[in-house]
Each structure stands twice: as structure tokens, then as C-alpha cells.
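Annex B. Sample input.
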Amino acid sequence: MTSEAGTAITVIGIILVLILVLSVSYIWFLIWIWKDYQKYSEETLPWTIGAAFLFVLILPFYFSARKNNKIVCSKCSKWFPVNLPNCPHCGRNKDAN
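Annex B, continued. Sample output.
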């Protein structure tokens, strides 16, 4: 084997490892979005599909939408998802004044 062939095999190996790492990271990110958004809404599929196709563009919108779906409890002052009827920290009804 010549040194050029050895170098080519090394470069191909490094490229394959990078592709594998990026693919695993991408899949992990999609799973994380799916599980994380389930805490805030039942509409997880649109966010996951959007992240799958528009990874770089959807990420800022995901984090902004994620923060907008929380409210502050008037009793304990902790944040909780708006779709829950009661605060998970102290149990107070979110509609109570």
C-alpha cells in the first residue's frame, strides 16, 4: 500500500466518523425536541418535523415558543406549562386569583 492510499483511507475514515457523530447528534436532538415539547403541548409532531427539515432555522423559533408556553404561579412564583390546570409545585389552580 502506498502512502497516498493510506492517507486516502485515513481521510475517508475520519469523514465517516464525522458523519456518524453528526447523524447520532441530529437524531438525539430530534428526540430531545419531541420529549421536551411534550411538557408544554400535545403538538409535538409539527415541531419535530420542522426541526428535522429546517434544523438551523427552526431552533430559535422553538426556544421562543417554548418559553411563551409557561406562566408564573401567583402563589409560589415558579414557572409551569400553561396547559396544566394546577401548578405542579404548590398545587394552586392557575385560574385562582
